[in-house]
Amino acid sequence: RGPAALDTDLAGRHVVVTAGGTREPLDPVRFLGNRSSGKQGYALARTAVARGARVTLVAANTVLPEPAGADVIEVSTTGELREAVRKAAADADAVVMAAAVADFRPAVRAENKIKKRDGQDPEPIALVRNPDILAELSADRPAGRVVAGFAAETEDVLANGRAKLARKGCDLLVVNQVGEALAFGTEENEAVIIEAGGGETSVPHGPKDVLADRIWDAVARRWAAVS
Ligand code: CTP
Ligand code: CA
User: Fold this and answer.
1) How far is the CA of 194 from the centre of ligand 1 (A)?
2) ipTM score of the complex?
3) Which residues belong to the signal peptide in this entry (predicted)?
4) What is the pLDDT of residues 23-75, one digit of tens each?
5) Which residue from 95, 113, 147, 165 has the least number of CB within 10 angstroms?
6) Ligand closest in space to the Cα of 176
């Protein structure tokens, strides 16, 4: 495929990308969060715009420049992200869940700032499960909509990725290894794109934009397979 095809091969498609990491408030000033910077999701939005797609980027707590040409919706909690994605996905041809979604949220959100008291140990923080947005999107989609997720794994990366793809019911899972120095907040990434039905594409260590382009290639292949 020549460069001309690359320019516009997503033209006429609406794609929804989530980026960043959700935060779950404990009280008005504190939250449970994670280390996701949003860079991989922004790279996905940028490359999809460059390839001609209409792009909705649902951004959770990112501090990155808005990608030109994308519609950006800012959210913070998992509940907000879920609502925004559901809405945006209504007419979407693909949804890519690059955001790190909090698995749990505090069972109670204190109305006022939690205070410490002399001579008293802190109360334990009770948590409840958040809904699995990727699994919901995978279960609810019309034929022809491609749903992709990311898997952050620290051990048995491929085996865990395969099991996760099956559990979520999505079409594609981008599996990368994370840790203090790997992936989070860095400019580069290294991953394997696993496909439902068996395909596997290794993307060597390199810029997040390159991984993003390989992900759109895989999405476009799935569209071609169902049309
Ligand atoms: N995800 C989601 N909703 C959640 C949790 C995760 O949509 N409540 C999505 C993420 O955006 C990501 C994918 O699911 O695309 C995998 O996230 P990950 O944390 O690796 O998977 P989990 O199912 O939460 O498994 P684990 O127990 O390993 O964290
Ligand atoms: Ca998780």
Assistant:
1) 15
2) 0.99
3) none
4) 999 999 999 999 999 999 999 999 999 999 999 999 999 999 999 999 999 99
5) 113
6) 1
